[in-house]
Each structure stands twice: as C-alpha cells, then as structure tokens.
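Limitations

Structures in this collection are predictions, not experimental determinations, and the ligand pose is part of the prediction. Treat each record accordingly. The example that follows, with flavin-adenine dinucleotide as the small molecule, is included so readers can see exactly what is and is not provided: the inputs are given verbatim, and the output is the predicted complex.
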Amino acid sequence: MKIVVVGCTHAGTEATKDLARMYPDAEINVYERNDNVSFLSCGIALNVGGVVENTEDLFYSSPEELSALSVHMFMQHEVLEIDAMNSNLVTNERFSDTYDKLVMTTGSWPVIPDLRNIGLDNILLCKNYNHALTIIEKAEHANNIAVIGAGYIGIELVEAFEHHGKNVTLIDNMDRVLFRYLDPEMTDRVEASFSNAASAWRSGRL
Ligand SMILES: Cc1cc2nc3c(=O)[nH]c(=O)nc-3n(C[C@H](O)[C@H](O)[C@H](O)COP(=O)(O)OP(=O)(O)OC[C@H]3O[C@@H](n4cnc5c(N)ncnc54)[C@H](O)[C@@H]3O)c2cc1C
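Predicted complex:
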C-alpha cells in the first residue's frame, strides 16, 4: 500500500508516526510546505514573553526523526492539486505522485482582512516557526505594538509584549475581548486586569 500525507505539523506528524507503526510495509510519502515539522504554535507567546528561551525548543519531532521510520519526507513541497501534482518550492520542479490512501492534514491559516496596506513589512502573522522568529526579531526594537484580534492568540501576545514593557494596543471589532469563549462577567475582569497592568507598567510599578 502507498500512503501520501499532505501537511506535517501536528495532525500530520501524529498520522505519519501512527501509519509507520501500523503499516510497516506501506510506502509513506509526506509532503510539507515548510522546512520543519511539529512546531508548537501554542508556545509562540511563551517564546515572545521569554518563558521559553529558544524558539527551537518548540519542536517535538523533525524530518529526520520521521525519515528514520522509513517515511519519505518531501520538505518544502506544496501539494497543488488533490491528484497530487506537486511543486518543489526550492527548485520549482513539478512532478506527480500516486497513492492508495491520502491523508490531508493541511490545517489552517490566519484570516487576513482585506485592508489597505495589509502587506506592509511590519504587519506580521502569528502561526508558524518563521512567524515566531520574525515577531521576536521585530519586537526587540519596537516600543509600540498593536495586536489585532482579541481571541486567545491575541490575548496571549498582549500579555507577552506587556511583560517586555512594550506599549501594547489591542484591537478587535467586537465590543469585548474573547467574546467567542467567555461571558462578559469574565471578559470584564480580563479587560480590567489588562488596563491595570498597562497603567502599572507606565507608572513603573511592575
Ligand atoms: C499562536 C497559536 C497559539 C495556539 N495555541 C494553542 C493552544 O494553546 N492550545 C491548543 O490546543 N491549540 C492552540 N493553537 C492551535 C493549534 O496550533 C492548531 O490547532 C494546530 O496547529 C493544528 O494542527 P494541524 O496539524 O491540524 O494544522 P497546522 O498546524 O495548520 O499544520 C498544517 C500543515 O500543513 C502544511 N500544508 C498546508 N497546505 C499544504 C499543501 N498544499 N502542501 C503541503 N503542505 C501543506 C502547512 O505548511 C502546515 O505545516 C494555537 C495556534 C496558534 C497559531
């Protein structure tokens, strides 16, 4: 049996490990757009805040580890069509592959609003390893940081930047933070604690 896995962060890494264990005779090809696997995005804010010192510590697997399971790893390869027409991002070479079973673990991507100048260099996304490196690099010399989106990721980033003494502005199109997850009784407290922390920073109390 030949199995193709498309996308290799968490779902893809686990699927690949399980498939290699359950079907030792299968030929398994993994295609991943990035040059890494298994990056823990949930640690980006901890990394930005300095709790996790090295961004590299946010990986729990690697292409080498999966290759050692006799899996063929096609890194920096983007699958363009479900019938497995592929493009090598480094050489732009294209080729086709076949499969008996196809595992799609292509995940998600941040919603990018259609705003004027959205492509400016200092407007960053927060999703993967490269984003984490860029955020940390750019934040080092930034005093004023705006975080757009007051969901869990935005809230964690605000906290991390505040810990570094940045002047942080949180922007959301709803009238309160975390509106998808918590009732106003709780979000009122979160907002109050953010305002208190911000004024404490500014007055030198933290
Ligand atoms: C900042 C941040 C913080 C988070 N915090 C938490 C948390 O605290 N707790 C929690 O449970 N979850 C958290 N999440 C969510 C969690 O990271 C995701 O649920 C998880 O990453 C989903 O894993 P996945 O493998 O399904 O998809 P993804 O992580 O999206 O991975 C998909 C992979 O597929 C690849 N890919 C996509 N299309 C193609 C293609 N055509 N060809 C080749 N490769 C392709 C991508 O490059 C990527 O590597 C957080 C997410 C972010 C961004």
